[in-house]
């Protein structure tokens, strides 16, 4: 029966695509040309494949071939929507900076409607409007702005301790080198969880929340993409997926609401006049958290109402999802390159040692500000190995001309991030890891402002990643501390292989299993995790 359903869905898809092709023209009625793309017959099968089985990232090899054939801007029709892909940095600058307002919207997702969710109460997925502006301003001003960084100094210290402690156990283990990916993922998620809810949680709770987040995100991206193409048909055939996704969301709510309510009680006590003593690194509660800011949000367009519990759960989930996997994946690639390039690692270690006092337990946030080579290493890692090869899709709010082609109102536009960062016309030896290209005053503005776009691992323009500054800080902080604590070496039988594999992020096909050599005797740190 399942096979029959799939056959029916594919047949319906092809029939629907044929109808679309009869209406579809490369030249609009006013004579303006759409970006080039594959011929009609091939387009039919591409549309069915993309809509039923894939995300743009999974179709990356196909898109790379299309770019080589048709040029740096190509179009495909995916379902009833025209999808345009941009691989050129100059065209990206035109679209995202010069014409930013016209391309600042997001397409709606059929899966959100089917699940009864409202993407409008989200920073990453909301349409371009007053609610999005309010939520983004709250996130940046209250939590992610560099001026707020010191509020989370203790959280980073705690997370560093967890990271180094777990890595030290791996180094002391006499068995074959273990993969470090789970350790990176745990430490970064642990840090963001503290920032979100303001509380150090024990490992059992952290792992339960991480597992719930992981399962929901993976299921959404691997199983729910089918609803992007003929959602009414998919909704009928894949009811089990909807039920599963709803159960995952209920589980998430069960885990998040007690933390939100506990934080609400804590804030109420503070408002009641209970004074808080000055906090130290051995405390377990932060004075500020992201969820604190959500309690104060009011929606002027809706009678000045506060956020509901469901909306706060979704925003907290977004906070964790947007920052955890991207940061841990970038960390993984950077450390792999340092294992592979021992001379670069040694130069970096010398800079860290010179800028950090021996008696200090950590490389502090203040220390890393005077480490230009560290910053160059991180930027080179983000250039060569962006954790995501496509940003979230934009949607044209009006007709826009780009590179002589029409991007019509309602079309989705995506940007091939990895292609730009590896473009041999812009970067000398782009597939080599050369941090020096960012040193000596030759830095690159990753925000893509007036200087133009050369790389855009965080996106560019009005929908640029809100957590750009905090993500870079976390990468600098973790890389510096790990290199200070350990010499990272290649282990026999586990040589570095930089081949890529798409999971939720673009990760190493062969996991990093380094040999970790402690650079100094084991130090007892404050607070046992």
UniProtKB/TrEMBL annotation:
<dbReference type="InterPro" id="IPR001128">
    <property type="entry name" value="Cyt_P450"/>
</dbReference>
<dbReference type="GO" id="GO:0020037">
    <property type="term" value="F:heme binding"/>
</dbReference>
<comment type="similarity">
    <text>Belongs to the cytochrome P450 family.</text>
</comment>
<dbReference type="GO" id="GO:0016705">
    <property type="term" value="F:oxidoreductase activity, acting on paired donors, with incorporation or reduction of molecular oxygen"/>
</dbReference>
<feature type="transmembrane region" description="Helical">
    <location>
        <begin position="34"/>
        <end position="52"/>
    </location>
</feature>
<dbReference type="InterPro" id="IPR017972">
    <property type="entry name" value="Cyt_P450_CS"/>
</dbReference>
<dbReference type="InterPro" id="IPR036396">
    <property type="entry name" value="Cyt_P450_sf"/>
</dbReference>
<keyword id="KW-0408">Iron</keyword>
<protein>
    <recommendedName>
        <fullName>Cytochrome P450</fullName>
    </recommendedName>
</protein>
<keyword id="KW-1133">Transmembrane helix</keyword>
<keyword id="KW-0560">Oxidoreductase</keyword>
<dbReference type="InterPro" id="IPR002401">
    <property type="entry name" value="Cyt_P450_E_grp-I"/>
</dbReference>
<keyword id="KW-0472">Membrane</keyword>
<keyword id="KW-0812">Transmembrane</keyword>
<dbReference type="InterPro" id="IPR051103">
    <property type="entry name" value="Plant_metabolite_P450s"/>
</dbReference>
<keyword id="KW-0503">Monooxygenase</keyword>
<feature type="binding site" description="axial binding residue">
    <location>
        <position position="465"/>
    </location>
    <ligand>
        <name>heme</name>
    </ligand>
</feature>
<feature type="transmembrane region" description="Helical">
    <location>
        <begin position="6"/>
        <end position="22"/>
    </location>
</feature>
<dbReference type="GO" id="GO:0016020">
    <property type="term" value="C:membrane"/>
</dbReference>
<keyword id="KW-0349">Heme</keyword>
<keyword id="KW-0479">Metal-binding</keyword>
<dbReference type="GO" id="GO:0005506">
    <property type="term" value="F:iron ion binding"/>
</dbReference>
<dbReference type="GO" id="GO:0004497">
    <property type="term" value="F:monooxygenase activity"/>
</dbReference>
<dbReference type="Pfam" id="PF00067">
    <property type="entry name" value="p450"/>
</dbReference>
